[in-house]
Amino acid sequence: MKRLLRRLRISGGPRSTSWILNLFFCVVFMPILVVLGPMRQWLGQWPLFALLAIAFLYGCYFCILRINLPKLLIQGQWKRLAVPILGLIVVNYLLTLYPLPDLDFVIPSLSAYQTEMRNSSVAITLWLMFSLVVGYALTISFVTELYQQLYLTKKIEAQRKKAELAMFKSQISPHFLFNTLNSLYSLVLGTSPKVEEAFVKFTDLLRYTYVVADHEYVPLSDEVQYIQNYIDLQMLRLNSCTKVKWAHDILPDQGTTMVPPMLMLTLVENAFKYGASATEQCLIEISLTLSDGILRFSTSNHVMRRADEFRQAVPMGLDNCRNRLATLFPSRFSLTTNESDGLFTVELTIQLQ
After folding, report:
1. Which of 4, 28, 144, 191 is 20 to 30 A (C-alpha) from 216?
2. Residue 300 β-bridge partners
3. Could you read off the pLDDT of 25-58 as tens digits, one per residue?
């Protein structure tokens, strides 16, 4: 077992694991089931029936793997779970009704009796082999899903440690940083309301960034305030050419909903980076809603930077965001983009519950 696990680790992850287990079923499990069971005699007596049975068992195995029963069980999708299982049972039942040739004895009643007993024995054998294949397929499904989860957990942990290491390397002491900002704030106090407001917003943003660095989830209300502070700080440096529409429909009781920190900020940063202008009229629209456990966040902006630079840089940030979503909300999110007539839109949907 240790050698197998070592081989799976070396082979490169869950996909290689699936290939090895599927290969074992095809070239070891099924041939043993055929050679050591009555199917070997069936190949000689009723070759067409035997080939149909073997093909069905192979198809049954890969069908169960395809529908991914563990994930359907976790998600509670009972209909998607029941339909293929019932379909396989029906097909196996129809296979037991295959018209095999009658046995011929001198006494007709004995022939009918022996034929009925033979058919019952074949049906029982088919159900037994069907159960063995289904049991093996379910075992492989759960083992593969468990290995994928372990592999994903290790990968996320490694990425997190790498990100933390990079952050610590470039991080200034928070105590020193905030003291320095307070000193600078005292120096510019009274010089300009915009400068004072900018310092306050920037300090709040920086403090929030340090506070949530070690948190996997934060209240949604904190994220909304963080986005608001970011927008306010951006608007302080921009003139009236750039308009921003920021709308969020978050009820007071929804503010405690936990979300990953700074997940939506990447989309907001892209909207300002490529959709703001100090010389041309432009509009940035940002919206956030939460309903029935489904969070919807969208941004829309005109492309104010060079098109080739925009297309090369934006997908990179979106890919990073998509990778993070895939690790946090597997199969429970949608991130789509669209660029048409110089207007770039991003729509994010997350099923939080």
Report:
1. 144
2. 285, 345
3. 888 888 888 888 888 888 888 899 989 999 999 9
The residues, any chain, with a CB within 8 Å of residue 163's CB and separated by 6 or more, are none
Distance, CA of 244 to CA of 286 (rounded, Å): 8
pLDDT digits (tens, 9 = 90+) for 60-76: 989 888 887 777 777 77
The confidence band for 172, taking pLDDT boundaries of 50, 70 and 90, is: very low
Taking CA atoms, 342 is separated from 44, 146, 252, 271, 302, in Å, by 70, 45, 37, 13, 6
